[in-house]
Amino acid sequence: MKQNRSPDLSPEILGQLLLMQAIICSLPDESSIFSFTCRGLTDLPGVEQVRYSRNKEEGLAASVTRFPIRTNDANFGELLITVSEPVAFTPYIEYLKNFCFMVAIILDERIKKNRYEELCTKLDQLVRERTASLTKSEKKFRSIFDASSDAIIIADKNGSVLEVNEAAEIMFGYQHTKMMHVNLASLMPERYRTDHLHGIENATSKGKTNYLNHVLEFHGLTKEGKEFPLELNVATWFVDEKQFFSGIIRDISSRKKAEAELRDSEEKLNIIFNSTNDGILVADAENRKFVAGNKTICEMLGYTLEEITQLGVDEIHPAESLTEVHHQFARQMRKEIEVYHEAPVLKKDRSIFFADISATPTEIGGKKCLIGLFRDVTARKEMEEKVRQSQKMEAIGTLAGGIAHDFNNILSAVIGYSELVLAKADSNGEIYHYVEQVLQAGYRAKALVQQILTFSRKSSTEILPLKIQPIVKEVLKLLRSTLPTTIEIRQEIDEKCAPINADASQIHQIIMNLCTNAFHAMEETGGTLSVILKEVNLSTNESGAFNLQPGYYAKLDIQDTGTGIKEDVINHIFDPYFTTKQQGKGTGLGLAVVYGIIENYGGKIVCSSRFGAGTIFSAFIKTVEATPKSKDEVQTILPSGKEKILFIDDEEALALLGEKTLESLGYSVFSMTKSLQALETFRAAPYQYDLVITDQTMPHLPGSELAKEMLKIRPDIPIIVCTGYSSIMNEKQANSIGIKAFLMKPVSKEVFAKEIRRVLDRTFSHGTK
Amino acid sequence: MTLNNSTISLGFTEQQFPAGVHVCQIISDDDERQESLLKFLLTGLKAGERACCFSEQVNETILKEFLGNYGISFNDVIDSGAFIFSRTRDIYFQDNRFDPDKMLAMLKNYHEESEAQGFSAARVIGEMLPEVQNVPGGNRLLEYESRVSLLLEKHPITAVCQYDARQFNGSTIMDILKVHPWMVVRGSVVNNPFYITPEVFLSTEDAKG
After folding, report:
1. Cβ separation of B174 and A22 shorter than 8 Å?
2. DSSP class of A183
3. Does ipTM surpass 0.85 in this model?
4. pTM for this structure?
5. Rg (chain B; Cα; Å)
6. Please, what are the domains in chain B?
7. Distance from the CA of A300 to the CA of which of A565, A587, B109, B159 falls in 20 to 30 A?
8. Strand ranges of the sheet holding A151-156, from the earlier edge strand across to the other edge
9. Looking at the complex, does the CB of residue A113 fall below 8 Å from at least one CB of chain B?
């Protein structure tokens, strides 16, 4: 397609170049572009051929002009144009150069675009892969999010809930959709909301809050309004400058419950630990220092708990015992023994008590320890000592009982015959005076025997309701006549004090003993003896202090202003044979007898004294409502009678004494010394006698057996048994076999007179003889 | 004949043209092709013209949806004969060959029918397939295009020929440019400086394939 061209520039040709340039942009590749270009440029004026070469060709014909297609950065080869008419072609050379440059730019841009598209494709691929990875990751996160047993809540900066997991829905009782956009404040009780809002405000405005990255404990609120304890961990983060909060919430109801139970358990253990009567100490097995102790051990040792935890084994035992203490400690750690008996324990005040220490090795907080239970056995030891003393007294009592019989028989003769002598002697004569002294000595000997028997519980007593006011007065009247005038006697006797169950002679003995002691305490200096009797009502607390039952008691105070009792002595004053008096003034039995009598009545005697300032003894004996037996006035005229009496005593002197004494009372008396003979005599004429009086201790046939035989013969015969001492017979037993009276030797004339008359009168009043 | 001499719009450019322009559109992406095609058809149908489309790239579904969006029922315009739609192969390669004479006769007939049926004008858009180069008669493509220009002088059908630059090589594209008086360059329709009138072109060796 050759045309004649004007050598001038043709607008049409320039338009073709422009159009080609435009269309090249639409062509897909270099091949298409250069075939298009070569085809199009062939129509240029003066051009014979156009071809494209990727590489620079050498040795071209002179008619061929090179048009490089390149930019500064890229070379796309060259167009080789064979020009047949240079004149026509030359005006377009510059346009062609521009055209080629434009093609180069287009190709360069296309390469860049392709690269860009490749990059985009790669990027797309990466984005797809990343998206898939993120999707996978999110799926993983979601599954973790949903599988978490802790509630997870995500909220925006206004506290509006954006996402929750299943645990949160269950924990707060919401359905998923309903929990969305709920405000966090509604998930907590009202009382927390102000703090919560401040926390959110601080985190959003200042970027920090105390709540972030800390584990908080407070309460949550379910949709139904139920509170529960929770643990919260809050975090915040930003996405595209938007702030979000996440909270991981753990329901700690179970933990709190367990903690409460543990606290409760600890409290209970603590209560048990501190309420036990045994002291408890926990010692570190290694250094043997105390790591814990209970309240009781503090009281036992006199230390505070703080002080105890500064101490060790060495500080609570006497130095001389430490070798043994550590030896036993080691044995207990090895479980060789459980109890260390009667360990001496040193108190803060340096006094010592004895304890049985039961110990168990254990481990506390990884440390080997020994838990020791301290039981104070001092009282037990004292009790054992008392038991030993009691057994000793029992032996003394048995011995005393043994000699009392013979001694009383002797005294019976001494007292009886003295009384007979006095009855016949001139009361103004010298002999009368001497015998009177013999009689007084006999009475004192009798009283001594009685004291020994009373102390050893061998005497028989008559416990009956008794008003003690007359006895107190009688004793004081007697004392007034015998005590020196330097001793003032002050009495305060409550006439309304109710009677007590007691034996009159024992009450007499108590008052006499206590007053005699008071006198001895004031003998040298003089002073005041106060005797006060009143009825008191002891409350539970007051009675508890004396180890008594609460109720009404007769309280007898005997107080002196004498020397008082030393502190180291006062705890022993009731011990038998304990005396501070000089030889001859005390037997050491007085207070022991008093103590024994009152204890026997179920009462109590206590002593309060200050050395140099006097002493007061207070005796408490329970009062009764029964009408007291009249322990009335002393009869001055002895009762007498004419009845016939058979009198038996294996000791001839006593048999004769009885005969003479009873005859002096008007009775007809037939005395015998052999019990078997006496039985035969009675059997021969049982109704010849109105009364039989017999000694108990006799060979072959004791008094009680004689009485039984006689009663078989004549059941209504009244019989009185006398004894110096008998371990096999007492008044109750005597009564049970039909004996009407049981008298303790030596029997005074007065006692004989009264008892004989009483027995006979009772027999007569029953219409028998 | 109701066809008048007033100008028409091609739809994808704001320019106005007399009926019977023969435009070549070298396309290099599918969106460009579809957008031009649909706008061209829509503009014609809305203007009361008869429209005809030969394409392998658009289908009935796309046409129905697009036209429907503008209140035009695809079925109605098909039924009324205002719109003719066919696959390129079915039209250009009947009997598996390219027959320019037959095609030109068909265009002539199309125009006469349109005229007879009272359409204000007639337009056609078709995309040539690269396989034309491999079917019998395919070497007569440039002759065909050149003769179309001649036909349109007597039967002013507004025709847009779409060629996919990705499927034809550059020299072919250059040859095709030479037989179209109008070109679409970057959305605008311009006079083609490479255009060789049918009288000249058909006398050259190129016209003989």
Report:
1. no
2. B
3. yes
4. 0.42
5. 16
6. 7-208 (3.40.50.300)
7. A565
8. A161-164, A151-156, A242-251, A227-239, A215-221
9. no
